[in-house]
Amino acid sequence: MINSQSGKAGWKSPSNIALVKYWGKKGKQIPANPSLSFTLKNCVTETHCRYQYDKGLKGPQLSYSFNSKHNTSVEDKILSYFQSLVPEMPFLANCRFEVDSHNNFPHAAGIASSASSMSALSLCLVSIEEAVTGICHPEYEFKKRASYLARLGSGSACRSVFGGFSLWGQSFVEGSSDQFAIPLEIKSGNIFNHLQDTILVVDEGEKQVSSRAGHGLMNGHPFAGQRFIQANENLQEIIKALEEEDIDKFIGIVESEALALHAMMMTSKPSFILMKPGTIEIINKIRQFRKESGIPVCFTLDAGPNVHLIYPYQRKSEVNDFVVSELLVNCARNYYINDETGQGPEKLISL
Ligand code: PMV
Predict the structure, then answer these.
(1) Where does residue 325 rank: exposed (0-12), middle (13-18), buried (19+ CB within 10 A)?
(2) Which residues pair with 198 in a beta bridge?
(3) Is the pLDDT of residue 349 over 80?
(4) Which of 17, 21, 238, when mutated, tests ligand 1's pocket best, judged by the most ligand atoms within 8 Å of its CB?
(5) pLDDT band at 113 (very low <50, low <70, confident <90, very high)
């Protein structure tokens, strides 16, 4: 029975930054190793999704706009994503959708926009599923379902549906799964509770390697087996460091994860060097600053040249002075973004 014939769902969802990296997958978006991230606050996607049920349709229909412009290339990708979800959500085959998505950060910033956009869209889909079927989930089940659907669109997006730290992938942590992410709670008052992320935009150019191609490079990679073992060990160690508030251990793992990700790309076939001279200069300056000042600040990298500066909330003002006085010269057009740990997505429209 169809409970609602038409309506509109809206969600605002943030990006996230991985501390233990997901790089390599198998089957249908199953990660080769578990990953851990924290959800950001300021870099978000707002998605509105209007639907109209029509039992005469033989598959989902979609019109997709990005930043208020009709975008056919994203439309094609989202439509095939919707088609792939029909076995999970049969009502999709009888719906016409109008999706309108806005990012509040520029594409060129090198922030994982697929994480915020796919999580926002998945949350809209679960809201619509509830309206159409009339079956409502308790809050945690709702998020779990959205995380599961987001994963099928873009792996790391599954970690954006919860605030704070999120863990995705089967691991020693109870309840963890390859199918969806789970929140990782740490005690209130813990220094890691409000981590900051200043994104230093070294290069605004297009991505050299797509995520899909990047993950593919791990198939048959000579170091893949060892890398997956390392990621599991690092997950165990970083969770211990979070619980024990051991910031030196935390810094060691975060930086080693970033460099391991790039080492994988540098040693794959074909090989990619995604760091730019400015990336290396910033890394050296961060290490020097940490040594001289004793301020616990470290870096991580995604699959690109831009640097994420990670540090506790308590050291915000000193780190900001360091960014402005020493690191801005290495940023394209002096461009950087201050972000921090967020509480997770927000519903914009109630169905
Ligand atoms: O979610 P994807 O397929 O775009 O992969 C993201 C991979 C990294 O950003 C490099 C690491 C991660 O865990 O987020």
Answers:
(1) exposed
(2) 309, 338
(3) no
(4) 21
(5) confident
Asked if residue 102 lies in contact with residue 68, where contact means CB atoms within 8 angstroms, the answer is yes
* Distance of CA 192 from the midpoint of ligand 1 (Å): 22
Q: Residue 215 Cα, ligand 1 centroid: separation in angstroms?
A: 9
Which pLDDT value is given to residue 89? 96
* Rg value, the chain, Cα: 20
Residue 91, both tokens = 């009502």
Quick check: CB of 21 below 6 Å from ligand 1?
yes
Ligand 1, pocket-test mutation among 26, 302, 306, 307, most atoms within 8 A of CB: 302
Mean pLDDT of 281-309: 97
Which of 256, 168, 269, 258 has its CA nearest to residue 213? 269
Ligand 1 binding pocket includes 22 (Cβ within 6 Å): yes
Helices 139-153 and 113-133 cross at an angle (nearest 10°) of 130
39 Cβ below 6 A of ligand 1: no
Residue 110 has pLDDT above 70, yes or no: no
**Ligand 1 pocket residue status of 154, Cβ below 6 Å:** yes
With 90 as the cut, is the pLDDT of residue 209 above it? no
pLDDT at 351: 65
For 269-297, give one letter per residue: b (16+ CB within 10 A) or e. Answer: eeebebbbebbebbbebbeebbeeeeebb
Q: Tell me the mean pLDDT in the region 30-43.
A: 97
Taking the centre of ligand 1 as the mean of its atom positions, its distance from the CA of residue 21, in whole angstroms, is 7
Whether the pLDDT of residue 2 is over 90: the answer is: no
- In angstroms, what is the span from residue 302 Cα to ligand 1's centroid? 7
Instruction: Kindly tell me the burial class for residue 234, based on how many C-beta atoms sit within 10 Å of its own C-beta (0-12, 13-18, 19 or more).
Output: buried
Segment among 106-110, 151-155, 271-275 with least mean pLDDT: 106-110
